[in-house]
Write a structure and sequence with these properties.
Length: 382
């Protein structure tokens, strides 16, 4: 069985890591039907700090194909990625294509595959912000609707898919277990499965080594819980000057007199350089950081302010209060738990619950995904 994994932007390198590990584990278990994994990097992110550092840190192997798509308008980036991915898929003829999350590379990979009649597995399926102005929302909805295997990170995502008429939820939103899998004769087309969140898998895998691998707090002379962490890169925030001003003002107000560390995304750097809106002098703007530094910076901060999807959950798992710099979030459970607040609703404090529940799984999402893929492909060939 041959699968092709398509990645291209920063969060996808992180999400691929546990899947690669689970494929390795699967292939070394006795009697397993071997899975060959072709890795395709579209090149949507290309700076060292946005791409290669993740491969180096996490020990992800060099991609079999690097398509060097780079930047451009949405049409250019998606179209270019689709053209180049299609060529690789024609050459490699995989049995299944795996795509991750909601970027232009996700949509390009899914469309290229499905038009060649190659089934698509979508990891992080069913997420919705219900804001169709976000490019990521369009990418998610379309990818879900052309996918055959829809791997959801939580029950809410399976419910979103049910509401859109993608109904083959095999376990009613309950976390899939090995028994569920064994009891299924074969996975039907358009299978929706709650497998848990692969980002939780990575966080658990990395938790033990983060402190050893990250020296960022010392380098920046930060004291434990004595600074705030900021990240900002979504087009909805950076590309609208009024909105950008509003966020700069909000951050300045919330953090006045406090140190703020801000690993700045390249998109934001361009906008900030051209803008007259400026942060106060205790905001330390640094280059984007790698995964271990990112976790360490989050863990030791007193508060995270972000428009990233992944960081809302990481803050939640690490028990750090978070303010989401958006009007809505796909990760509603983090808000319900009190650890996360939308900035428009922030009243000066958080009221977090003590316990962190397991709504995003148990750290075994990637193993479930690989188990289900194997089952699905075996069903198709036998
Ligand atoms: C993309 C994803 C978003 C994801 C984010 C993670 C889409 C529509 N959005 O947004 O879902 O959360 O990645 O970071 O796919 N740039 C560089 N160097 C790089 C990468 C980008 O300078 O290594 C510049 C580009 O030239 C462009 C800007 O940053 O001007 C935005 O890059 P783009 O690839 O469009 O996506 P992101 O904003 O990073």
């Amino acid at each position: 069985m041959k699968i092709a994994n398509i990645i291209g932007a920063r969060p996808q390198f992180v999400k691929y890591f546990p899947v690669a590990k689970a494929v390795e584990l699967h292939n070394t278990s006795s009697g397993a039907r071997r899975i060959t994994d072709v890795l395709i990097h579209t090149g949507q992110h290309y700076d060292y700090e946005m791409s290669k550092v993740f491969f180096d840190e996490l020990g992800i192997r060099t991609p079999n194909y690097h398509l060097e798509v780079g930047s451009g308008t949405h049409g250019e980036q998606t179209g270019e990625a689709m053209k180049r991915v299609e060529k690789v898929l024609l050459d490699e003829a995989p049995d299944l294509v795996v795509v991750y999350g909601d970027t232009n590379s996700t949509l390009a990979g899914a469309l290229a595959a499905v038009k060649l009649h190659i089934p698509v597995a979508h990891i992080e399926a069913g997420l919705r912000s219900f804001n169709r102005k976000m490019p990521e929302e369009i990418n998610r909805v379309l990818t879900d609707h052309v996918s055959s295997l829809l791997f959801c990170p939580n029950p809410r995502a399976t419910e979103n898919l049910r509401m859109e008429g993608i109904c083959a939820d095999l376990n009613n939103g309950i976390l899939m277990n090995s028994e569920t899998l064994q009891n299924l004769d074969f996975l039907p087309e358009r299978s929706v499965l709650n497998v848990g969140d692969v980002m939780y898998d990575v966080l658990l895998l990395a938790a033990e080594v983060t402190e050893d691998k990250s020296a960022v707090a010392n380098r920046l002379e930060l004291s434990h819980k004595d600074y705030l962490l900021l990240t900002l890169h979504r087009a909805e925030n950076t590309d609208d000057p009024t909105r950008f001003s509003e966020i700069v003002r909000f951050v300045n107000d919330i953090s006045s007199g406090k140190t703020v560390v801000f690993p700045m995304h390249p998109r934001t750097r361009k906008v900030y350089a051209a803008s007259s809106d400026k942060f106060h002098s205790a905001v330390q703007i640094i280059s984007p950081v790698g995964y271990f530094d990112s976790l360490a910076l989050m863990k030791h901060s007193g508060l995270v302010m972000t428009d990233s999807g992944g960081m809302q959950k990481e803050a939640f798992w690490l028990k750090v209060p978070c303010i989401t710099l958006r009007n809505e979030t796909e990760w509603v459970e983090t808000v319900e738990s009190g650890w996360n607040v939308l900035y428009s609703e922030y009243k000066g404090r958080h009221s977090p619950t003590d316990s962190i529940n397991t709504v995003y799984g148990d750290g075994l999402a990637a193993q479930r995904i690989v188990g289900a893929i194997e089952r699905y492909l075996w069903g198709k060939t036998s």
